[in-house]
Amino acid sequence: MWEAWPSEPYIRLGSFGAVLAAMALWEALALRRPPTVNRRLRWVNNLGLVVLNSALVRMVAPLGAVGFAVGAETHGAGALRTLSLPYWASVVAAVVLFDLAIYLQHVMLHAVPAFWRLHMVHHADLDFDVTTGLRFHTLEIVLSLGIKAAVVLALGPPPASVLIFEVLLNATSMFNHGNVRMPPRLDRFLRWFLVTPDMHRVHHSTIAGETNSNFGFNLPWWDFLLGTYRDQPAAGHEAMVIGLTHFRDELQVDRLHRMLTLPFVGAPGDYPIDRRGRGT
Fold first, then answer.
1. Whose CA is closest to 97, among 165, 143, 146?
2. Which candidate among 29, 128, 195, 241 keeps its CA 20 to 30 Å from the CA of 154?
3. CB of 22 closer than 8 Å to CB of 114
4. Helix (H, G, I), strand (E, B) or coil at 47
5. What are the angstrom distances between the C-alpha of 132 and each of 7, 19, 49, 173, 208?
6. Distance from CA of residue 271 to its chain's centroid?
7. Taking the model in full, what pTM does it have?
8. CB neighbourhood size of 116 (10 A)
9. Which of 72, 65, 123 is nearest to 98 (CA)?
10. What are the residue boundaries of the structural domains of the chain, listed by start?
11. Spatial distance between the Cα atoms of 94 and 68, rounded to a whole number of angstroms
C-alpha cells in the first residue's frame, strides 16, 4: 500500500509549508486585527501541537485517509463504485461529499458536549490567525481520522480524490483562519464558493450564537443551505472578542501541555448546541 503512494507525505508536507508561508507573509503585509496576546508563545505552541498530531497520525495510519481509500479500491467497496461514473466525476463527487461530511462532523463537535470538550481547544485560542487553523486537540484529530475512514469506506472514492481533499482541507483551514485583510468586494465574491477569513472569523466569536454558525471549512454552501450562515459578527471584525468567555488566561490556553489537558479540566461553558441552541 505504501509503495503505491510514496509521494503522499511529500505532497502534503510541501503544500502545508507553502500555504503556511504564504499566509504568514500575507498577515505580515495586510493584518486584519492587531494581536492581543503574545504571538511568539502562540505560534510555538500551536505549531508544536501540529507536530505532535502529525507524528501520531503517521504512527497510527501512515497514509491517513488515503490508505483507507486504497484499501476500499482493492476490495471494490463503496457506493461510488456502483454508479460507473467517469473518473473525473468520481473525484469531484467525492471531494464535495467529503466536504459535506466535514461540515456535519464540525456541527457534531459543537452539539455533543463530550466532543465539544475536545474541540474547545481550537476555540480557546485568544487570537485568530493562520496557526489557529492548525490547532486541534490530538484526540479530535484521531476522532476525525476515524470519521474520514468511515466516509471513505462507505463511498469508495478514488484515492487521488482523498489526497486532493486532504490537501484542500489543510490549505483552506489555514486560509480561512488567516488574520488577513482583503477588499470587501472580493470577500463577497469569494463567499459564493469559498469560506473566507471574514466569514469564518465569526465562528470564533465569544458569543455562543456566533460560535455556532459558519461551520464550513472549504465550501460555504452547507451553511447557506442548512441555515447556519451568519454574515458578520455583531460587534464588527475589529471589535469582536475572539475565544471562549471562560478561558481568558493566556498561560492557560496557549501552552502545549495546557492544550492537551484542557478538555479534562476545563468547563465546557454554555457553548454546546444542545444546551443553548445557536443563540442570538
1. 165
2. 195
3. no
4. helix
5. 27, 14, 11, 9, 19
6. 18
7. 0.92
8. 21
9. 65
10. 8-276
11. 14
DSSP 242: B
Listed in sequence order, the residues at least 6 apart from 70 whose beta carbon sits closer than 8 Å to its beta carbon are 1, 4, 5, 63, 159
| Residue showing cell 471494490 | 76
Whole-number Å distance between alpha carbons of 268 and 59: 30
If you search the block for the grid coordinates 490547532, which residue do you land on? 135
pLDDT (tens digit per residue) in 198-211: 999 999 999 999 99
For 21-39, give the DSSP string.
HHHHHHHHHSBSS---S-H
CB 174 within 8 A of CB 20: yes
pLDDT in tens, 13-60: 899 999 999 999 999 999 999 999 989 999 999 999 999 999 988 887
> Which residues are CB-contacts of 95 (< 8 A; sequence separation ≥ 6)?
161, 164, 165, 168
